[in-house]
Amino acid sequence: MKNLRFDYLPSVVLLTLTAGLSIPVNAQTFIKIDGSSTVFPITEAVADDYQASKKGAVKVTIGIAGTGGGFKKFCKGETDISDASRPILKKEMEECAKNGIKYMELPIAFDALTVVVNPKNKFLSKITVEELKKMWEPAAQGTIMRWKQINPAWPDTPIKLFGAGADSGTFDYFTDAIVGKTKSSRTDYVASEDDNVVVQGVARDPNSIGYFGYAYYLENSKKLKLVPIVHQAGKPAVAPSVQSVIDGSYQPLSRPIFIYVNAKAAERPEVKGFVDFYLANAQKAVKEAKYIPLTEKDYKHASLNFSNKKTGTAFGGEPEIGVKIADLLRRDPKE
Fold this sequence. Notes:
five-stranded mixed beta sheet; alpha/beta; 13 helices; 17% strand; 12 strands; single chain
């Protein structure tokens, strides 16, 4: 057989001849993430650093479909990791199980859901859980339309509500903590899974009120006014802060936030490497994103659970208010 001159061969023939040969290429691997817009800033910061460390060999894509929207994709096996601002729910657990999706639940930070109004609002210096419930419960729909209806001391002006969309974990947690039942809310308000929509809406309307994650308030504090919460009658109003979340005084709107990792995807070196990198660098990324980091001990415990392939959820499909991370990490997870 004559020596082949590759430089004269058509490309299709060259590909056929070299298909079985081990020729190094700059292949790029992909990690797909979707879910919570609340968790997005943390995951984005980690992903940027991880991609830089891999010099472009790994590409991380991150969507913001909301926690519920993210789990819909995750439980179909369409994503490798799901950002979540609340634990996986029973119906989502069942969907994952039906599709053979096992997962590791990893808490990565604390958030403080923050109630905000327009800076031109001069009458609201605090708000009680009961007043928030009266404002947001399903019975308020089409009925509670003015500030004075909630508190006689407030003005007789229209109230414009902005909040999380139904696919958002923020929506689930807020309704559970304030109304007392997950997803129980009036629907006649401006809803979005993108917290920036709520930020812009409240910033433009003097009669507005809304809620979202703490980091989005800090990023926009010059055009928004936060409202301290009175958890129980006779108790002082408490504003969200790193200290009030850590000491447990900001209730009932402080919460853990998570990433969920597809166990099969975690067998791929790029995904395992990313999650290891995430947990090792979470404290820095969480602070940069203006959330509240877990303790170093908690991150090490989460890393151990990931290394040991501890699948399932510590919640069993039911949300909890005021839970401690150390307790979660010690629980035997359910699938």
